[in-house]
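User: Second chain of the day. Same drill as before.
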Amino acid sequence: MSFFCLLWMPLFYLFRRTLTPDDSGAGGVWALLLGSIAAIIQFFLGDLIKPGGFGLSRWVSACIDIVTFPAILPLLVCFLFLALKVVSGPIDFANFALLWLIPGAAVRAVSWSAGNGPAFLVLVPLLWTAVAVGVSFFINLFLEHFRWYVIIPSGLCILVLPFAAATSWWAFYSQQFLRGSLFLAAAALPLLISMILSWVKLRR
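Assistant: Same format as last time:
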């Protein structure tokens, strides 16, 4: 499972690049550098939330320390780069986020290898991918089709998807497998749609 946590992010990034060869790789070096710094800081600081049991504090920990914030942070930095014009040319949000998360997954593969189990070593990389690519998908919809009937549902999905991912992790950790599976499917659906659309576009 540690190898899955270590290898999933880079392998998925390379797989996605085969489906989206025209997407810009601008900012890749920044993503790896800042992702490495963030991973090292998190490793030394540890978790900000100390959860107890399986209740609300565990879900908040999933949002802050485990699933939501780690996957959303690179997208926020990507927006900042665009606003400040740090990188010349367009940035692919999903590629930037996936590259950022590679060092974090490597650090956690080591720190979680002592017996935290599949909820950490398998589910977390999958949920990071779902959030990074899914939220990026809705951001692109938002930017490319600036209409109210696109903005409103895309904005709602951007808000809901990260919390659905955190809830999925919390449910699996609490051994509520049916609920966890439902939230996992909801979190992963935009990712699947994005990959299918990229494949269809590539085939044309």
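The chain has nine helices and no strands.

User: Great, on to the next one.
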